[in-house]
Records
---
Amino acid sequence: EKIGLKIRENTLLRIPFLLIIGDKEQETKSVSVRTREGLDLGAMSFKSFKTILEESISLRSNHKITKNI
């Protein structure tokens, strides 16, 4: 399968974040990130993605707490 088709299929599955690692990303030791909404965040270091992921988890946890009050 081509990478574009895999990205589209997984976007439709509503996976929160897609990490794409191709030849270019391997060379630069980075990951390309897309959100479930289809927003392309571009290439970044794994450490940068980890920060985004932690913020997303924190926001989601805070939302659940607020929602239950």
---
Amino acid sequence: GGSCTGPAAADRSHVLQNFDMARCPRFDYAEWKMVAESGIRDVHYYVWSGSDFMENGIPPGRTFEQWTDGARGMHFFDTADARPPRDEDGDGAADNLTPEIDVISVPWSSKGFIFLNARRLRLDLPPGVPLALRPPGEPYLDSNGDLRHDSGEPWVNLSYPVSADNGFRVDAGATSGGGGVVRDDRGTATTPIPVNFHGILYTSGQFEATGSATYYGSVIAGERISQDLVDGTLPVPRFIWDESVKTGWPLPDLALPRVVYTRWSTGP
């Protein structure tokens, strides 16, 4: 076969492998467990009982679905033995995660930050509750590499959609800020659409998504994310990036702490 590489562009925009992709942050078990056990408002720590989860290890126990449905804030679900995830047999999967969790065909929705340590989380959900989404800012050429838009750096002038189901449209004339046109750091809010989760959902194991759910923010799995479709006819969930995860975290609506004290000392 022949080469699939086209002619080289002057700005090397064809060299996708040289693009500095956004890297997934490290979700440190010990660090987030310490935050979860701090006892501050809207932060919750759950211990595995052998059949369900108990908040702070105190009965009664409830399921993952029951603790998180309709809730906000931070929810940390510990491993089966309350120790960091570990892979003792070298198969690439942690051996001390809690059993698989299935939330299927129920109207589940949640907001905030979920840190789960289960072998697999399967969410097969109908549409969630109405929420207005804000698209990311207009793309620009970061000429000096300072990760922000500076005067004189070219940018693409977008016409933002009213509905999240519609696409973006490029207005006539990409501009560097001349005239009365100003670059938008964030798009205008869309009309509300059904959303099942808003925030960051992290699991140390696998994440399997099916159904008609919408996830707004970021979903991260320590092992893998899959959509187990039998014949390709099942509905596929939507994952929509919320730029606030990078630029305005945490949002007040998610009821997450901005500061957590890890040590307090007084001087002489």
